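subagent[fold] <- orchestrator: predict structure for attached chain, return tokens only, no commentary.
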Amino acid sequence: MIYLLLKAVHVIAIVTFVGGLLMLSVGVRIANLAVHRAVRRWDRAVTAPALALVWITGVAIAMNGHWFGAAWLSVKLVVVVALSALHGILAGTLRRMERDDLVVAPASWLGQAAGAVVVAMGIVVGLVVIKPF
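subagent[fold] -> orchestrator:
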């Protein structure tokens, strides 16, 4: 029963985190201070805690299933670390844009962040469902 509860919390946290990550990726492309403030408030209150829950429940599930050492999980973890790093980059960029009143221009590659999130989530879901290796 605990496994199913962990899995449910994990999936809810993932959906919340990915939604927030997509919102961050759009927020850095909008030159509007009010939008930046709203997105940052949401990030601090919802997206960042969801990321913490993703990691906590994910590690607990992997330990419960004895999956550490499985190749599919190792690949998944690389993708999840990259998504976590992207969250930090986007949140930091948005913070600097808000602090410096839009003077900071986001890195050009951040314009592709939303697409990268969608592709990364497709890879993660494929790995978890299929467990190809």
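orchestrator: received. Logging for downstream: Residues 20 and 42 are 8 Å apart (CA to CA). The chain has one domain: 2-130.
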